[in-house]
Design brief:
Length: about 220
Amino acid sequence: MKFFVDTADVGEIRELAETGLLDGVTTNPTLIAKSGRDVFEVLEEICGIVDGPVSGEVTAMDAEGMIREGEKLSKIAKNLTVKLPLTFEGIKACSHLSKQGIMTNVTLCFSPAQAILAAKAGATFISPFVGRLDDIGQDGMQLIRDICTIYSQYDAIKTEVLVASVRSPMHIVEAGKVGAHVATIPAKVIKQLFKHPLTDSGLEAFLKDWESTGQSIA
């Protein structure tokens, strides 16, 4: 499974990139607004930090506007992925941009039917939102299972399932079990993956025993 970080904070991205675990980045208008920076400036900087796909989202509501914005965003860098909403107009724009060889990420997916549309439009990624479904009492991970099952039936489908709205390490584990291609994860949740109380207590014991020997490897 590929790991993307869901942020527009360049400092967070640099820190995670140093681990060698980061495969890409996703942003959205909310995250860009939080950065307080110019959208083209911040996306260009992010694209220079990571080699993998970096999603920059359009804000137009009509297909023509989305295509125009998408083409402009795609010129930022080769790894810029145009993020589009899963609407009638968004799917039209996805089909057009995909035929141009521009990477696309269709976002705000909440049903398997919507995911089928994105795949038929040639989307590079489909972003189903698990956490937001959980918030309204539905099983977000069932959506991931359904999409992975459907996509696996057809060799012609190249769209990757990008699990979004991740809230906990268990979302990532469960997504991995069903073969999701990518998870886009808040930085704090990526760091939670490292944590286990037995790791901490085991390391503490090892260091205490080593200290008692009076030796040094340095």
